[in-house]
Amino acid sequence: MSEKVIIIxxxxxxxxxxxxxxxxxxxxxxxxxxxxxGGRAYTDKTSLRSHWDQGCGxxxxxxxxxxxxWADRLRSVYDRNDRSKNALFWVKNRxxxxxxxxxxxxxxxxxxxxxxxxxxxxxxxxxxDVPAKAGIGEAIAEEMVRLMCxxxxxxxxxxxxxxxxxxxxxxxxxxxxxxxxxxxxxxxPIHTRTEVVSVEYHRGGVRVQTNSGQIDGRAxxxxxxxxxxxxxxxxxxxxxxxxxxxxxxDVPCGTYEKVALALKHYPLDPKDNxxxxxxxxxxxxxxxxxxxxxxxxxxxxxxxxxxxRGLIAAGPQExxxxxxxxxxxxxxxxxxxxxxxxxxxxxxxxxxxxxxYSYARTGAGQNRRKMIxxxxxxxxxxxxxxxxxxxxxxxxxxxxGKCAASRLQVLLNLKPAS
Length: 418
Ligand SMILES: Cc1cc2nc3c(=O)[nH]c(=O)nc-3n(C[C@H](O)[C@H](O)[C@H](O)COP(=O)(O)OP(=O)(O)OC[C@H]3O[C@@H](n4cnc5c(N)ncnc54)[C@H](O)[C@@H]3O)c2cc1C
Prior knowledge:
By secondary structure, the chain is an alpha/beta fold. It has two domains: 5-61 and 66-77 and 174-252 and 356-412, FAD/NAD(P)-binding domain (3-Layer(bba) Sandwich); 87-168 and 256-344, Alpha-Beta Complex (Polyamine Oxidase, Chain A, domain 2). It has twelve helices and 19 strands.
C-alpha cells in the first residue's frame, strides 16, 4: 500500500494540510480539479487593470491570524490599520452626519452582541428572530450579519453563528490574499486539472478515482466546499462518512458575490473610508461597497443571500448594472463615465465551489461541532466549514487542514519518508 496521504483540493485548507505533512516529513500529493490553485482565495490579475480579490480579501481576526506570519515571511503587503469600520453612509437620499454614522456603528455592534448573547443561551433560532434595535442603522446591521453568514439571516442558526470567535480586527491584504495562499503553496506536489470523482476504502487505506486514473494512498483529506460535498459530485463509501455527509447537509455554503468597478477617479473624495453603505429605500436591502485605495481607484459591491441568487439568475451584466445603478442613485448618471472596467464573481455557478461559505442552518446549530468531532477514519475532512472558531474564513480553512494532517499522523502513526 502506498504511504502517501491524498489531499483533495488546493484551497487554503488543502495547502495548510500539505504544508503540515511536508513539515512532518510524510509523503502526500494534492489533487486539484481546477486549472489554478487557491480555490476561494483568488487574486484576479487579469479582468481589470489592477488586481482584486474575488474571494477572501481581509485577514479576519488579524491579531491572532496565523496567515499574517506567512504574509510577513513572503512579503505580502497588508494594511495593519483596521479601516473596515471607516464608512460613509448614504441613507434615504442623504449622507449621514457623524452622530448618525456613530449610531449605525452602535446598531451593528449591538446586533452582533445580541446574537452572541442568544447563542450563549444555546438557542437554535433563526438569527432574524433575534430582536434588533430599531433605528437608522437597523437595516445596515442586518445586511452586515447577512454578509457574515453569506446568506439571509432567516436561514442561519444563532447558536451556530455564535461558534465564530471574532476578535474584530480586520486587515486588508492589499497585495492579494489569493496571491499569498498561492505563494505559500510554492513547491508543493499539486496536480491541477485532476477532478476526483470517488473516494473509497481500499486495503486498509484509500483509493481515489479521478478523471485521469486512480491513486491509492494511506489516507485522504477531503477539502471540497460543503456545497460540493452536498451536490454528490464526489461519491463516498457508506458508514461514518455518510453520517458526516448527513450533518454537512445542514451546513451549506450561502451565496456571496462581488462586483468590482474600476474607476478613472472616485465619484467623491473617500478620505480614509474603506466602505460606502447605500440604503436608498426601506423596502430595499442596503448594499455595501468596499473602497479600494491605491493607484487604480476601485469600488467593490458585496452581495449575498437571496438578493445575490436573484442577480446571478439574471446574469453577470444585470449584476454589474445593479451595483452601478446604486451609485447612479447617489452621484447621478454621469458616474457611468467614471467606470473604466467591471468584473463580477461567479462562486455560486462555479461547479467546484458552488457558493460563498458555510453557516449552520436553524435547527442544526450544533452540526458543525458534530462534523468536526466525528471520526471518519482514513477518509477525513477539512476546509473552512470544519473550523469551529474561524469557520467561513481562509485562516480557519488553513488551520483545519493542518489539524486534519496532524490528526492523521497520530491516528495512523505515519512515519516520515526515509
Ligand atoms: C466572496 C467571498 C469573500 C470572502 N472574504 C473573506 C475574507 O475577507 N477573509 C477570509 O478569511 N475569508 C473570506 N472568504 C472565505 C474564504 O475565501 C474561504 O473560507 C476559504 O478560502 C475556503 O478555503 P477551503 O480550502 O476550505 O475551500 P476552497 O477554497 O473551496 O478549496 C477547495 C478546493 O477543492 C477543489 N475541488 C472541489 N471539488 C474537487 C474535486 N472533485 N476534485 C479535486 N478538487 C476539487 C476546488 O477547486 C477548490 O480549489 C470569502 C469567500 C468568498 C466567496
